[in-house]
Amino acid sequence: MIVLQSLVSVLLPVYNGEAYVQEAIESVLAQDYDNYEFIVVDNASTDGTADLISAYCHSRKVKVIRNENTIPRLDNFVRAFNCAAPESRWLKFIGDDDRLLPACLSEMVRVGEQSGRVGLVSSYYYDGDRLVTGALPPSQELVNGPHLLRRILLEPEARATVFSPVSLMISSVVYREMGPFRTDLLHADHELIYRILNRYDLAFVHKPLTISGFHSGSGQAYSTEKGFTFAEAYLIRLDHLKHYDNVKLTVREIEQVKSNLVIDSAGYMLARIAHGDFKGAYRHLLNIPLTAAYYLPLSLVYFLVLALKKIARREPINLLNRKRK
């Protein structure tokens, strides 16, 4: 008996990715899973990206689309998703500086199809050279979505379970129901992921399947430097609590969410001050909602104590860890 593989649409929206995109493409073509389509959407790049990806047009797996004009970055992401075949069962995003390891698609499909309630699939991934494993016990492959969303809202370390977009695969049915990305948010992927977890479960592979890239010209680098990563977190993790109707938080737990958010903001502002960017720190201060701002003094005390401990141990003080996309 022949078991038909589900169709996976691998989507690569790219703009001026000449330095990285060829390795990303090769990592997709090296998959040990056969039933996939690979859609590359070039957002009218002005470097050598078009020439690099045109060399793959002969492949039966690769479909290259080139926009006539450069459109906003997230509009290009939405276009890539919209180009997926209607019969596709799964949608797999990859950035131009990301890599898929050879068993990525086969392992994600394997765990994702264990239950009809799965909306997202995730896995261990490499953040550069660092292995990120998330916050699930090694034996757990299927996770209740609202339960995980609750943990993510309350436990900062749990966010790594679904942190990197390249480590995720989305059910196409769920995406059509819950999507598309909001194009007014730089972190629209997280906004969508949280809403999906409120309704659907997560399947998880306890092995690394992807490598998340990061470079100075990436959207995440820009977002982190300007503070949008932290400012949008208030919308996604606090303002949207009312939309997560399958997650019930107590008053005390809501206060914990606020405290976690302000600690992140305080760390960002201290980092900007350390770099002499006082205006950037002040601009972000104005982004902290009044409903959470009263945690700011305690957050500054938190970082002072942390710094004193590091000084006592003669360790370097890094106010802002490098963020990944």
Task: Please outline what is shown here.
The chain is of the alpha/beta class and about 325 residues long.
CATH homologous superfamily of the largest domain? Spore Coat Polysaccharide Biosynthesis Protein SpsA, Chain A
Low-confidence stretches: 321-325
What percent of residues are in strands?
A: 15-25%
The secondary-structure class comes to: alpha/beta
Radius of gyration: 20 Å
* Overall spatial form: globular
Mean pLDDT: 90
Number of helices: 12
Which CATH class of the largest domain? Alpha Beta
Question: What's the N-to-C terminus distance?
Answer: 42 Å
Describe this structure in words.
The chain is α/β, with parallel strands linked by helices. The chain folds into 2 domains: 8-212, Spore Coat Polysaccharide Biosynthesis Protein SpsA, Chain A, CATH 3.90.550.10; 219-312. It has 12 helices and 10 strands. The protein has helices at residues 21-29, 49-54, 73-82, 104-112, 145-154, 172-178, 188-199, 219-226, 228-237, 251-274, 278-285, 296-312; strands at 8-14, 36-42, 62-66, 90-93, 99-100, 118-127, 130-132, 142-143, 169-171, 201-212. Strands 1, 2, 3, 4, 5, 6, 7, 8, 9 and 10 form a 10-stranded mixed sheet that branches. A hairpin with a 2-residue loop joins strand 6 and strand 7 (130-132). Helix 5 crosses helix 7 (188-199), helix 9 runs antiparallel to helix 10 (251-274) and helix 10 runs antiparallel to helix 11 (278-285). The longest helix is centred in the last third of the chain and has 24 residues, at 251-274. The protein is globular, with a radius of gyration of 20 Å. The model is unreliable at 321-325 (pLDDT under 50).
